[in-house]
Amino acid sequence: MTGLWMHFDLDKVVNVLQSDGYLRKPAEHCLSVFGQKLIEGLDTGSVWKLDEKKVCVHFAKQILKGGKKKMESFIEWKKKIPEGLQINIDMLKGEVLTERLGVDAWVYAFSSAINSG
């Protein structure tokens, strides 16, 4: 993982989100879904980091909810990923199918991937 900003102090993240009107529980939920806890401290709170693959898969699923996409169009998924994450199309193995029809390459979501949330 690159970039120190990828490591989050839970209390600091929650405080910022609460100042924007969000509740603590949804913030904690998002970190538990898209990250992993690195440190559980008694005085310092907990430190989390984003899981690059989980974040990448999330954005790919969002794009593919609308159906299949041409590869050229789907690759714009990379623009939706937060800056600093190291992403690769290989992260989506098991989550998407690619198919070449003539000169076009298409990307589809696995139906089980779409239904898994």
UniProtKB/TrEMBL annotation:
InterPro entries: Dcc1. Keywords: DNA replication. GO terms for biological process: DNA replication; maintenance of mitotic sister chromatid cohesion. It comes from the Eukaryota. Coiled coil: none annotated. One of its GO terms (cellular component) is chromatin. Pfam families: Dcc1. The keyword Ion transport does not apply. PANTHER family: SISTER CHROMATID COHESION PROTEIN DCC1, SISTER CHROMATID COHESION PROTEIN DCC1-RELATED. Belongs to the DCC1 family. This is Uncharacterized protein. The lineage of its organism: Eukaryota, Viridiplantae, Streptophyta, Embryophyta, Tracheophyta.
